[in-house]
Specification:
239 residues; alpha/beta; Rossmann fold; 5-stranded mixed beta barrel; 8 helices; 35% helix; globular
Length: 239
């Protein structure tokens, strides 16, 4: 397969930076580009998953929406790693808390991702159910957060294939048996693709809701208020 790919309408590799920040919501990608980047060019993708390459403090960076779920981020990260020679992808997304210690807007640096999904095994041949990020990128993110005086909480997270379940207490067993402190739907697939291609990946998550109570950010807050996580990721890309 050559470029453009079936999902990224870009026939020039140089238009996509070596470091890509990947929110799930394409509207968050646009907000980041509009707010923080200069000299922006737009990169088209199907299903309105637009990407934007621009400069953040004179460092080129690409921001691209991944969509929701492991199949979606699996497609975009696979194509970016394999066909566009991207070196590092940092997911910047939202997560639901499993514990009272993780509150709304807390920023999580993923230490490892557990999943019962078959994504890694089927797509990459990786059989492990627990995958880790790049240690080097995580260390850089921690340094970025320290420089910005932003607190990161390092946790194991659960990457789920589902959002709804007929068993509302299913998460309690996952927390107890696997030590997962929050849940989202993409990181495990990103880590699998990075491992398969020998590239680097990390995941920063902002707590947007809780499975313990009714605390929840609004859709607009999810799109616009996750500033700490975004600034940490941008600071990484700058260095």
């Amino acid at each position: 397969m050559s470029i453009p790919t079936p999902h990224i309408d870009c026939d020039d590799k140089s238009k996509i930076a070596k470091v890509v920040l990947m929110p799930g919501d394409p509207l968050r990608a646009k907000m980041i580009a509009d707010t923080y980047l200069t000299d922006v060019i737009q990169i088209n993708g199907i299903r309105n998953m637009l990407g934007y390459t621009g400069k953040y403090k004179n460092k080129r960076i690409t921001v691209m929406g991944s969509g929701m779920g492991m199949p979606s981020i699996g497609i975009y990260s696979f194509e970016l790693f394999k066909f566009y020679d991207v070196e590092t992808i940092v997911r910047i997304g939202s997560a639901g808390s499993y514990t009272p210690e993780l509150k709304l807007k807390d920023v999580i640096l993923v230490e490892s991702a557990y999943s019962d999904s078959n994504y890694a095994k089927v797509a990459t041949g990786i059989s492990s159910k627990i995958l880790k990020p790049s240690k080097a990128i995580n260390n850089k993110l921690k340094k970025s957060a320290e420089k910005l005086n932003i607190t990161l909480k390092e946790e194991r997270i659960y990457s789920s294939d589902i959002f709804y379940s007929v068993n509302p207490d299913r998460w309690k067993k996952i927390k107890q048996d696997k030590g997962c402190m929050c849940v989202e739907m993409e990181t495990f697939a990103l880590f699998a693709n990075a491992k398969a291609f020998g590239r680097k990946a990390a995941s920063l998550l902002t707590i947007s809701d809780s499975l313990l109570n009714t605390d929840m950010l609004t859709p607009l807050e999810r799109q616009k208020s996750m500033t700490d996580m975004i600034l940490v990721a941008l600071e990484l890309a700058k260095n």
